[in-house]
Write a structure and sequence with these properties.
By secondary structure, the chain is α/β, with parallel strands linked by helices. It is built from 11 helices and 8 strands.
Length: 287
């Protein structure tokens, strides 16, 4: 199983230079991926821009939106162009992880309704795939640039329902769980695999998950301070998410082992703080 690390693009107080230093150090530490999370109505850096900055100071590490709330990017052609640009600039390292989103304020701020977002999401993905394949879509010059990877950036979709599993099987290269236990991952992953087989897709989808972490002497306070704020709109669920954060090396090792046993291909540990020592502490915990 690959181990990735999140970029602290949503951690309050993260300075631009900190993002660049984090990206360089994470690549040097051997992590497989720099992942981003994000929402619109929150203080933080937009994911595609943050990963573009990371792309400029790295050369090997994958760059993954884990996940981008795609329905908020209502212009599918523009999103396709942005994603293809980042994928090409990074030499094919960009992975577009996308999900529906469900917070009303993010959609309200975008002038969009949450109603029908699943249908719009599928139409958006289909349009982007046509563009990445080089179809001109009625325009003489087409919409570029041409992605490095045939067919466009690797596409990973989120979701925890049978409908979302079937969407992965029809439209994507893999699936990501945005949070939850290894047992929850194993159950959902089985559903994804079943939908993949029913769709007649060869091989298996790549399957990823996220897990929050914070290490060091103030780890619990750091995790609680960030996660209770970021997920505050979710009430009691915010406390459950905060409590699940890996705040000791033993918890990190336990999570990694359990997710690997559950069939996870890549586990991205998302930071709850932006101090560069967090990279070193996580690398030591999983060594």
């Amino acid at each position: 199983m690959d181990i990735g690390i999140g970029l602290p693009n949503t951690v309050p107080g993260t300075e631009p230079q900190n993002l660049l230093d984090w990206a360089r150090q994470a690549e040097g530490a051997g992590f497989s991926t720099l992942g981003t999370i994000g929402r619109l109505v929150y203080q933080g850096y937009e994911e595609l821009i943050a990963l573009s900055a990371a792309a400029a100071v790295t050369s090997r590490i994958r760059l993954t939106t884990s996940v981008l709330l795609a329905p908020l990017y209502a212009n599918a052609a523009l999103l396709a162009k942005q994603a293809a640009s980042l994928e090409r600039i990074s030499g094919g390292r960009f992975v577009l992880g996308a999900g529906l989103g469900g917070r009303d304020d993010d959609f309200a701020a975008s002038g969009l309704s949450t109603k029908g977002r699943g249908r719009r999401f599928e139409e958006q993905i289909e349009e982007m795939k046509h563009i990445w394949a080089g179809e001109k879509r009625g325009f003489a010059g087409g919409i570029g640039p041409t992605p490095v990877r045939d067919g466009g950036p690797e596409l990973i979709l989120g979701g925890s329902t049978d409908i979302s599993f079937r969407r992965v099987a029809r439209l994507a290269d893999g699936w990501i769980m945005g949070g939850g236990s290894p047992d929850m991952f194993a159950e959902a992953a089985a559903g994804v695999d079943a939908a993949w087989q029913e769709a007649g897709r060869p091989g298996k989808p790549r399957k990823l998950s996220l897990a929050y972490f914070g290490l060091g002497p103030n780890a619990r306070a750091q995790a609680d301070g960030y996660l209770l704020d970021y997920y505050g709109i979710m009430g009691d669920v915010a406390a459950q998410i905060a409590a699940s954060a890996a705040v000791t090396p033993d918890m990190v090792k336990s999570y990694a082992a359990a997710f690997e046993a559950s069939g996870c291909d890549e586990l991205i540990f998302v930071p709850t703080g932006s101090g560069l020592e967090q990279i070193e502490l996580l690398a030591a915990a999983i060594a």
